[in-house]
Amino acid sequence: MFLPSSALEAAGRAAAACSPENGLITKDQERELLIGQQADIVLQAICRGAARDTTDGHCGRCDAYIIAHPRHGVVDRLQTVFPECRVVDWKPARRPPSGNVKRALDYVSHWFKTFPDQELPFTKIYKALGMSASNFHKLRRHDDFVFGIAELDVETDRPGRYAHAFRRGEELRSGGDYADYFPSQDDAEDAAEV
Q1: N or C: which end of the chain has fewer CB within 10 A?
Q2: Domain check: are 76 and 108 in the same one?
Q3: CA of 8: how far to CAs of 28, 76, 82, in Å?
Q4: What's the CATH number where 167 sits?
Q5: pLDDT for position 70
Q6: In angstroms, rounded to a whole number, what is the distance separating the alpha carbons of residues 24 and 174?
Q7: How far apart are CA 139 and CA 83, in angstroms?
Q8: What is the crossing angle of helices 143-151 and 99-114, to 10°?
Q9: Based on the structure, what is the number of domains in the chain?
Q10: Could you tell me if residue 77 is inside a domain?
Q11: Is residue 147's pLDDT more than 90?
C-alpha cells in the first residue's frame, strides 16, 4: 500500500504540473506527498464503510481505528480529510509493567528527565540493570516495553542501519526521510557497544 518515493514524486509532479526541469523536490514536499498519499488511502478505506451512507444529506456514523505512528502525519490530516470528525487516541487497557520491563522503563524515564536532549545508548541501560545484551534485545520487543516507551515519547534512534540508542521523539533526525517511515526490521543485538 505504500508507493516508493519515485512514484510519489511522479504523482506530485503530475498533480502540480511541475516538470523535472523545474528542479528537485524538497524533503518537505516529499513528506507532504507521502502524508497526502496515506490520507487518500485512509479516505478510500473509510468511505467503504458506513461513512458512505447518507441520511438526510449527512454522512453515516462511522467509528474507524487507524493504526499509525504520530510522526507519519496522517493522524494530523484527519480533520482536513473528514471535517468535523472527532479524533481520539485509543489506549487499550493494559496491566502495569513489572519485573525487568518496569526497571528498564523507570531507568529510561529517569534518564530523559535528567538529560532530555541526549541519546540513551542501549548498552548503558542493560549494563545498569545487570542484563545481557541478548536479554535486553528481547526486552525491547516486549509489548509492555514498546507501549511504555511510546507513552514516554521515546523512540529508537536509527542513525544508520542498526538501532543502538533511544532518544526523545520530538524530531526526526533526518527531517522525515522516506526510510524513517518504514524502518528496517533487522536490528543487530549488539549493533554498537557504546
Answers
A1: N
A2: no
A3: 13, 20, 23
A4: 1.10.10
A5: 66
A6: 18
A7: 41
A8: 20
A9: 2
A10: yes
A11: no
